[in-house]
Amino acid sequence: GAGVSQSPRYKVAKRGQDVALRCDPISGHVSLFWYQQALGQGPEFLTYFQNEAQLDKSGLPSDRFFAERPEGSVSTLKIQRTQQEDSAVYLCASSSRSGPYNEQFFGPGTRLTVL
Amino acid sequence: EDKVVQSPLSLVVHEGDTVTLNCSYEVTNFRSLLWYKQEKKAPTFLFMLTSSGIEKKSGRLSSILDKKELFSILNITATQTGDSAIYLCAVEAHNAGNNRKLIWGLGTSLAVNP
Description:
- The structure holds 2 protein chains of 2 kinds.
- Chain A is mainly β.
- Chain A has no helices and 11 strands.
- Helix content of chain A is 0%, strand content 49%.
- The termini of chain A are far apart.
- Chain B is an all-beta fold.
- Chain B has no helices and 11 strands.
């Protein structure tokens, strides 16, 4: 594919619902990142995968957040029992190189609104 | 090739000193410049700068962007030992396909001694 894709692009959830956000990275990219971005703010790092290994999940704000990349390609970010403060744009990025601070390419994001 | 260069790479100061960290960049299709603080875990977002000359301020930290000279500075006044961390600069840009990308600097490692 040409770039990173994410789905859904928009998600509205009622408070307490579980949501799952999908990321398809650029084919062959070994590193995958999830960020949370609030309006007018920069992306906040959530978690980082190198292939299927989750190397850093220290940015996940609570144990309601869970991310996986079981085959080292597609990744899913799951948020359980959503709260209003979870409303944000969730960005996925991928990189062809290992390591957290190489050039990363963003997907279009999923805008999550929790009512 | 797009790049972000931070200086100095490391810095040791005493509590109470003021420090200035530098970030210069060469990117096409600039979108924003971001500063992060990294301690032992994931980097924490500090500032996002999109316009020249407008200072962003949060407590003892402030930052400003110069889009003509292609750099930003992060100032920390009255430093405290808790300011010891790696400060990362990243530039967000659009690539040829109008997709967003993030280019990171190598960071400045700041140590504040009591």
